[in-house]
Amino acid sequence: MDLFDTLAKTFFDFQAMADVLPQLLQVGLVNTLVISIAATVIGCIAGMLVALMGISPLAWLRWPARVYTDLFRGLPAILTILLIGQGFARLSQQIFGPSPYPLGIIALSLISGAYIGEIFRAGIQAVDKGQLEACRALGMGYGPAMRLVVVPQGVRRVLPALVNQFISIVKDSSLVYFLGLLVSERELFRVGQDAAVLSGNLSPLVLAGLFYLIVTVPLTHLVNFIDQRFRTGRRKAVAPISGLREVAELETVGAPAEDARP
Predict the structure, then answer these.
(1) Which Pfam family is one of this chain's hits (predicted)?
(2) 196-208 residue pLDDT tens
(3) By Cβ atoms counted within 10 A, which residue in 16, 25, 94, 147 is the most buried?
(4) Residue 242 lies in a domain
(5) How many domains does the chain have?
């Protein structure tokens, strides 16, 4: 019984959770979503640029894209955040003031850009090459063909992977606290950690973890739903073609029998 009480007080002190709940909602959750959404948007822009450079026929465009991707995918996220957050601190103070918030977003954007670039590249290269060749045959240049035909199809194919990447960014946003955020800029983990130190138990951190689950678990199910809809849509698109073929084969088989009648 003593062990149960100890665990309950350590992880499920509801009074400590209630005390930190307003901060988690008003400060931690808001900042976590702002960091994650901003890093994802910037990462998508950078990732698309890297993907297009990576599949370019020009070597002087492919190599920088390859180096960028290998660099930021190979380094641990915390190392990248610390190198950028501390290495450019003076420059950031001159531009953004004392807040390290923008540097944290930039670091996460560079990391996500490398992963999203590979996602976009795989999606674009999965589009049948005949699409591009058909566009060129119609007189479209390489740029318009990629922008209007190939890239939209590639992006549609990788939507589930993009949502998965956003989930990873939400979790990696907790690493930004190493840069020493201001009180008004603390994300979920930092708010929970500070409250855990003050209260003397881990209940605020458990509540912060629940907020992460509230954000990430529905997104995980959304990924599965989108992927299932895409697969179902492709099956429905193929089914009528298969049925027509079967009808044509039956008609072909039945034709000689009708001709043989007297």
Answers:
(1) BPD_transp_1
(2) 888 888 889 999 9
(3) 16
(4) yes
(5) 1
- Top pLDDT among 262 and 209 is at 209
Q: Which residues contact 224 (CB under 8 A, 6 or more apart)?
A: 160
Helix (H) or strand (E) holding 103: helix 101-126
pLDDT tens digits along 155-188: 888 888 888 899 999 999 989 888 887 788 889 9
| pTM score over 0.70 | yes
Which CATH number fits the domain that encloses residue 161? 1.10.3720.10
Residues 235 and 20: their CA atoms lie apart, in Å, by: 49
The torsion angles phi and psi of 237, rounded to 5 degrees, stand at -70, -30
Structure tokens at 111: 């990391």
Instruction: Give the chain's end-to-end CA distance (angstroms, integer).
Output: 95
Tokens 């090459």 belong to 129
Q: How far apart are CA 218 and CA 213, in angstroms?
A: 8
Which residue type does 227 have? D
Res. 234 pLDDT band, cuts 50 70 90: low
In the block, residue with structure tokens 């922008």: 147
Number of Cβ within a 10 Å radius of residue 204: 26
Q: Which domain holds residue 152?
A: 22-187+204-254
In the chain, % helix, strand, coil (3-state, to 5) comes to 90, 0, 10
**Domain assignment present for 213:** yes
pLDDT in tens, 12-28: 888 888 889 999 999 99
147 occurs within a structural domain: yes
